[in-house]
Give the backbone structure.
Amino acid sequence: MSARAKVAVSDETRLRRRLARELARDDDDEINLARVALIIAAEEYPNLDITGTIRQLDDMALEIADRVAEESDPHAIIGILNWYLFEVQGFEGNESDYFDPRNNYLNEVLARHTGIPLTLSIAYMEVAARVGFQVEGVGFPGHFLVKHETEDGDILIDPFNKGELLDEDDCRKRLESMFGGNVEYTPRMLESATRRSMVARLLLNLKEIYLKANDFPRALAQVARLLLVTPDDAEEVRDRGMISYRLECYSAAVADLSRYLEMQPQAGDAKEIRETLRVLWQLESRLN
């Protein structure tokens, strides 16, 4: 039996409610990224000690707090963070198995010291915050980054590549390399990401991984949580309906696909969704 299968329905409901409470904060900056990421992980890891895992971040910050306190230059502080996280602790980007779902679970990232740009950025932000150094997320296409804002401009940092410092020209070149010129660079790509958008990006990563693996129960769990982040996201309502269809939960599929058409009556796939609904109604009638 998989780890997730061991999670009782009541525990799953409790975790979803806890996630909803964390995301309901009026001020986006008050969302505790580490706690939210670990609540997400707790459905997959039912024995996860969320408080104890957060304490790991506290302990790491304590190890460099005195060094950071002696510095006022942001480049020097970033140097300390990079030295400690990537040389002492050995955090690194998981290039050999990028799509391993464990790369998206913060408890696994902290235990294995490897992850993807987003989760390594969350770890970087959380340790930096604990030593009083403000670092923001940057939702750069295809490769999440972090930055520290100064009066002289932003300092861009790539936690996936051991804290490499980047400038705007580096980012243009990376975009060209990743997308072959099909995505045009704009300065908005380097704006600070909201914490809610970071949570959504984490869940989208997991959703895509599980869909590609045809692991529909786990994919459905990600969509359910995505709809806690963005309740009015019509595409996620549609996707929840289609996944429910694959799981032979026909009533749930009908409800979501019908709602999708109400939300987006002129959607480009409206004809296909109506056809799917006709099939679902036939399947439901046979069951009844």
Summary: The mean pLDDT is 95. The first strand starts at residue 92 and ends at 93. The beta strands are 92-93, 114-115, 136-138, 145-150, 153-158, 164-166. The chain has two domains: 4-190, 232-287.
